[in-house]
């Protein structure tokens, strides 16, 4: 009886508790959106903190939770976004916006080696690029936007409107192609990144060491850059529009002589030589006096009233600024429109972009029209996923005429752009070298345009036959069609003339088809605390290139509409050819993690290339990695908030290289037909294979072939072996983060085509394996991000890297072809492309210095003094030594990001330190007679040494002739190319949500920015820009205004 009463009481108590819980529990619902664009987020995890109650957001970002107590807190989390914890406080509706800033590494995934992996599991040297930082720079080439942002990656800008750049990862690893491999949505390619629309990019990873890149095998020796383009996202229809306008101008320019200064320097050169300056071929008259000590003073000078061209048309002496005549302010316009939408069954991303850059050099431009469609759809639930990523680009460009900036530098200033009657171009007169009118070159070049179509993309199918097994087939195509038309016009320019017979129209066309088919299977599973990720696959690659050209000479009319080869009357010639190669690969990888602390990975790739003979066709490239997440150890648990992440890494791996000609294993014979005897007897056909053996003196001749190359069937894979030691760290909940790398990169059996000795006979060039190279270096990246109590968010990050290069092996027969004196001193043990020459030791300023110096042909007061390094009393070629290296001690970058309320600010600095550059422009700025005597010179000559008026100058005195051979390679031309540049600064403002919604926008951001606004350079550098020290396209200062809008 007693037990029944007790049971009833217990049952009553439980009922009362349940009723009480029901009374105080409630339902909570809401919507989760992305803070960046206010779009709904599907699949966000919403759980009650410390309880098992949870839910996920639906297609519209909505969720419902029940039961939830008024005192509970909800945790919102999603991979790639910052988690949020929100107190309920009795509310029935809670809406949340998630930030795309990740403060831990656990949720970050990266695309490496045919799959995605968690960043915490990576054991190779992989840099994950912050795409939002990259996009703050108004660049059409995404690789240029990475300059200074990735440790160990050096980007060199060529300055042109197309935005082309040279990329080097961990230095120069070979003697031929050093470009990295690009993987775009799983499809490999090399180069052409200026054709890719930056706005289509979702993520970029840079694989720097062999252990990370070895899965890509034969083309990954120079590093791999993995690019993933944007995909559709589940949610409502979203439309984004981006636009910016940029104006560009010169950062700096060489100061050249004007007409009056030019005549002064010419007078000085003649006086220093002891000549009568009035006996000059240009007809310039000088009024000068000479004192008792023989020192002359110029009082006045007079140009002739006019000059005449070849036809007698007058040219009035002018004061032409040729650099100004060929340049202008550049204007760039960029427009991008994208549409994205999706459901739980599939999604799509569409984009259309237009970019146009009217370059700084007149009549140069680059335009790109791009369209992209990325889709994926699920079939049979999520068992099968099919999709594609496809883009088509049409680019058009007019490049600058060859070395036009040098032509503008050396064009004499007193020659006018046009003759007085306007009929002809201004040009050289008697006494001047035959140099072209730069304005004419730019004008005649305006129709020399190339057009290029590129279609790039892939289609894929992904099958999940059972849980955790994924089978994927990915077929990629890269098709390009290049067309260029070059027109050559007749002209009269001073005494220079090309008549109608020299006019021509040349058409060049080439197209190539590359296809890549990769088939992979992945299977991931867990056994207790052990986690395995496995991958196996095979890949086929094929490339076929076809090119042809036709040229017609002598055209009656010179309008672009008429200038076609079929209308030429002077003859039509043509040519063409086809080539190609194939690759077949098998590969596998296994990742292992125990208790998320101890990591290991092993990779093996087996590549076969048609470029090698069957005996050496296959190469095998292994790699392995080890990692230890020290921060996950139990003894670190109490300080985990302080020491958030410590991971030690070790990697070793090999990559191959097969960058040789497609037919280098074969002997090559070229046809040199001598179909008419006139060609032979005129003396122009000395290399022909035809011979008038019967002495007819006319008619048809027998034809033959000439060997142009020796084959080498012993060629084998070039192999790069790399060892990497790494440390990843994070402190204070990963607010302070970074990594440190040290690597040793050795390449052996380098494929090289060395110069050959004439004794070997005609056509003896041959590819061989015979060189070795080593690179060592450090890479350090560090950053700190946080938020002040006042709401200021900041993220500052920096990187610095070093690389030391040396050549370790070269074939004995050609070792002297790569630098040195050809006797005992060679490049071995020194950096590749090191400079070899004389040591300039100031200039002779007194007769006593001349008398005490060893024998040096051409020495004199005001001339360069060269050191006698071997102390034999004579300065000659045996006194040359190694005088510089083209590689910097270190490169670095610093990036600052600030956000406060609706404002954002970005500042980016980039630089290189202690790099030797050859300032070849000094031959024009510091000397009258080293090159192009009578061409224009730099204003530095006005400060040249003079024992009376300028005895403290270090610039050699003006010399009429180069008796001292001062154009020789010497330290006089080697300068410190260190610089620090303000690459980018940007200020943006996002309209408040309530304002943007009134104009039917979900987001509107306006910004202004500037690039290359200032440069700090070494005081010893005398050129215009250490980044582009010689005659390349000038790197401009730019100012940009733009907007980002979402609908």
TrEMBL record:
Subcellular compartments: Cell outer membrane
Database matches in Gene3D superfamilies: Carboxypeptidase-like, regulatory domain, TonB-dependent receptor, beta-barrel domain, TonB-dependent receptor, plug domain
Alphabetically ordered keywords of this record: Cell outer membrane, Membrane, Receptor, Signal, TonB box, Transmembrane, Transmembrane beta strand, Transport
Residue ranges of domain TonB-dependent receptor plug in the record: 119-224
Domain of life (superkingdom): Bacteria
Pfam short name (any one): Plug
Keyword Ligase in record: no
4Fe-4S keyword on record: no
Membrane topology term: Multi-pass membrane protein
Leader sequence segment: 1-25
A single cellular component GO annotation: cell outer membrane
Boundaries of every TonB-dependent receptor-like beta-barrel domain copy: 433-915
Family: Belongs to the TonB-dependent receptor family.
Database matches in NCBIfam families: OMP_RagA_SusC, SusC_RagA_signa
Protein's recorded name: Outer membrane cobalamin receptor protein
């Amino acid at each position: 009886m007693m037990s029944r009463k007790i049971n009833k009481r217990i049952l009553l108590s439980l009922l009362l508790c349940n009723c009480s819980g029901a009374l105080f529990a409630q339902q909570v619902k809401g919507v989760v959106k992305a803070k960046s664009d206010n779009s709904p987020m599907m699949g966000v995890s919403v759980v009650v903190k410390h309880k098992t109650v949870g839910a996920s957001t639906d297609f519209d970002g909505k969720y419902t939770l029940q039961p939830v107590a008024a005192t509970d807190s909800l945790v919102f989390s999603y991979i790639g976004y910052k988690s949020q914890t929100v107190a309920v406080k009795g509310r029935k509706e809670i809406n949340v916006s998630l930030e795309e800033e990740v403060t831990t590494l656990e949720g970050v995934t990266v695309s490496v080696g045919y799959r995605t992996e968690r960043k915490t599991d990576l054991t190779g040297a992989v840099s994950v690029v912050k795409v939002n930082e990259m996009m703050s720079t108004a660049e059409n080439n995404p690789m240029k936007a990475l300059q200074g942002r990735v440790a160990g990656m050096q980007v060199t800008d060529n300055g042109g409107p197309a935005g082309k750049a040279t990329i080097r990862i961990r230095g120069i690893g070979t003697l031929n192609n050093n470009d990295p491999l690009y993987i775009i949505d799983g499809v490999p390619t090399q180069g052409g990144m200026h054709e890719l629309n930056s706005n289509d990019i979702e993520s970029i990873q840079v694989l720097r060491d062999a252990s990370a890149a070895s899965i890509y095998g034969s083309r990954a020796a120079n590093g791999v850059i993995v690019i993933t383009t944007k995909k559709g996202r589940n949610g409502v229809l979203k439309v984004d529009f981006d636009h910016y306008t940029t104006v560009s101008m010169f950062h700096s320019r060489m100061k050249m002589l004007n007409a009056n200064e030019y005549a002064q320097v010419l007078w000085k050169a003649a006086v220093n030589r002891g000549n009568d300056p009035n006996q000059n071929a240009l007809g310039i008259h000088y009024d000068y006096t000479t004192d008792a000590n023989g020192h002359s003073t110029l009082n006045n000078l007079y140009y002739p009233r006019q000059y005449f061209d070849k036809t007698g048309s007058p040219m009035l002496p002018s004061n032409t600024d040729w650099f100004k005549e060929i340049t202008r302010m550049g204007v760039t316009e960029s427009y991008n429109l994208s549409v994205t939408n999706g459901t739980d069954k599939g999604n799509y991303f569409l984009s259309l972009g237009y970019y146009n850059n009217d370059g700084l050099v007149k009549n140069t431009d680059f335009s790109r029209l791009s369209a992209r469609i990325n889709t994926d759809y699920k079939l049979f639930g999520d068992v099968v996923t099919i999709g594609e990523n496809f883009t088509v680009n049409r680019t058009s460009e007019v490049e600058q005429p060859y070395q036009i900036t040098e032509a503008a530098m050396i064009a004499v200033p007193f020659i006018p752009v046009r003759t007085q009657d306007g009929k002809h171009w201004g040009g050289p007169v008697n006494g001047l070298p035959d140099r072209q009118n730069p304005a004419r070159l730019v004008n005649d070049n305006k129709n020399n345009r190339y057009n290029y179509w590129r279609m790039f993309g892939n289609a894929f199918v992904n099958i999940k036959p059972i849980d955790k097994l994924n089978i994927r087939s990915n077929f990629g195509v890269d098709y390009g069609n290049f067309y260029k038309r070059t027109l050559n016009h007749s002209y009269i320019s001073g005494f220079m003339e090309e008549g109608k017979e020299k006019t021509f129209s040349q058409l060049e066309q080439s197209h190539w088809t590359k296809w890549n088919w990769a088939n992979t299977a992945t299977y991931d599973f867990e056994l207790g605390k052990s986690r395995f990720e496995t991958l196996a696959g095979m890949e086929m690659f094929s490339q076929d290139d076809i090119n042809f050209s036709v040229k017609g000479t002598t055209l009656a009319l010179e309008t672009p509409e008429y200038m076609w080869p079929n209308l030429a009357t002077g003859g039509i010639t043509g040519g063409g050819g086809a080539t190609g190669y194939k690759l077949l690969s098998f590969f596998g990888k296994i990742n292992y993690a125990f208790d998320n602390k101890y990591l290991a990975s092993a990779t093996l790739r087996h590549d076969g290339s048609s470029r090698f003979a069957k005996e050496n066709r296959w190469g095998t490239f292994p790699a392995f990695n080890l990692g230890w997440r020290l921060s996950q150890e139990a003894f670190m648990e109490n300080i985990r908030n302080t020491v958030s992440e410590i991971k030690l890494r070790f990697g070793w791996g090999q990559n191959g290289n097969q960058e040789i000609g497609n037919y280098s294993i074969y002997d090559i014979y070229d046809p040199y037909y001598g179909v008419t005897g006139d060609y032979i007897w005129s003396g122009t056909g000395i290399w022909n294979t035809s011979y008038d053996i019967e002495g007819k003196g006319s008619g048809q001749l027998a034809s033959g072939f000439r060997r142009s190359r020796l084959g080498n069937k012993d060629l084998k894979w070039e192999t790069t072996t790399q060892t990497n030691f790494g440390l990843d760290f994070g402190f204070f909940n990963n607010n302070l983060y970074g990594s440190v790398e040290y690597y040793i990169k050795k390449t052996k059996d380098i494929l090289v085509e060395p110069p050959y000795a004439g004794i070997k006979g005609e056509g003896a060039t041959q590819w061989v394996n015979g060189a070795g190279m080593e690179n060592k270096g450090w890479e350090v990246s560090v950053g700190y991000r946080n938020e002040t109590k006042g709401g200021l968010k900041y993220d500052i990050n920096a990187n610095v890297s070093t690389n030391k290069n040396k050549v370790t092996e070269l074939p004995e027969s050609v070792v002297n072809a790569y630098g040195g004196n050809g006797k005992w001193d060679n490049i071995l043990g020194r950096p590749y492309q090191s400079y070899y020459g004389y040591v300039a030791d100031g200039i002779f300023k007194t007769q006593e210095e001349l008398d005490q110096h060893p024998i040096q042909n051409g020495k004199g007061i005001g001339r360069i003094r060269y050191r006698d390094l071997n102390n034999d009393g004579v300065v000659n070629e045996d006194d040359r030594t190694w005088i510089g290296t083209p590689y910097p001690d270190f490169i670095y970058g610093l990036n600052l990001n600030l956000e406060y309320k609706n404002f954002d600010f970005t500042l980016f600095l980039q630089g290189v330190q202690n790099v030797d550059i050859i300032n070849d422009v000094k031959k024009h700025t510091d000397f009258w007679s080293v090159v192009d005597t009578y061409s224009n010179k730099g204003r530095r000559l006005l400060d040249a040494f003079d024992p009376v008026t300028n005895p403290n100058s270090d610039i050699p005195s003006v010399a009429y002739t180069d008796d001292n051979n001062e154009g020789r390679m010497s330290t006089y031309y080697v300068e410190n190319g260190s610089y620090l540049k303000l690459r980018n600064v940007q200020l943006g403002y996002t309209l408040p949500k309530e304002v943007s919604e009134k104009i039917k926008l979900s987001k509107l951001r306006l910004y202004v920015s500037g690039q290359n606004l200032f440069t700090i350079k070494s005081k010893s550098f005398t050129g215009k820009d250490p980044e582009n020290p010689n005659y390349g396209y000038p790197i401009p200062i730019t100012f940009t205004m733009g907007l980002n809008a979402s609908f």
